[in-house]
Amino acid sequence: MTREETPSRHVILSGCSGGGKSTLLAELGRRGFEFIEEPGRRIVAEEIRSEGSALPWVDPEAFARKAFDMASRDRACVKGTQGWVFFDRGLIDAAIALEHATGIAASRILGGQDPFHRRVFLTPPWPEIYKQDNERRHNMKDGILEYRRLLAAFDRLGYETIILPKIDVEARTNFVLERLS
């Protein structure tokens, strides 16, 4: 089955850190759609609480492996869901991070994983709303480098990337839903 024929209703929201993904997901949730929060933020919060070292600024490979494992479990939990499910980053992002940390191709890391919806929505760099915090310690420059890696990798993996416009969350949500209908 080709990606175009795949009926997946699992949709990836990815892109530049601090670009409004979580705000968009919250609005999708408010409108009744199921969503999965970003594995990376959950891992960072837990690692900080437990004084662990699987942090992107300490051990990027261990962090990416944990993110991949968590994202795999997240995806399995919603496997039978009939409606749209939106993922804040998730499995493909984790595979791309692992590729960056280890040099192993994301396609090889993903192996036989079921593909997501062929359209992936990316938040572009948006310096006006970008904020660092305890869980997002990298600067805007690093966020832009990651964004470029994601763009290239999603293309390599055969996904159609749609760059989200820098508009208010209601309009952005409508934009996503219109592109999926």
TrEMBL record:
<dbReference type="Pfam" id="PF13521">
    <property type="entry name" value="AAA_28"/>
</dbReference>
<protein>
    <submittedName>
        <fullName>ATPase</fullName>
    </submittedName>
</protein>
<dbReference type="InterPro" id="IPR027417">
    <property type="entry name" value="P-loop_NTPase"/>
</dbReference>
<dbReference type="InterPro" id="IPR038727">
    <property type="entry name" value="NadR/Ttd14_AAA_dom"/>
</dbReference>
<feature type="domain" description="NadR/Ttd14 AAA">
    <location>
        <begin position="11"/>
        <end position="172"/>
    </location>
</feature>
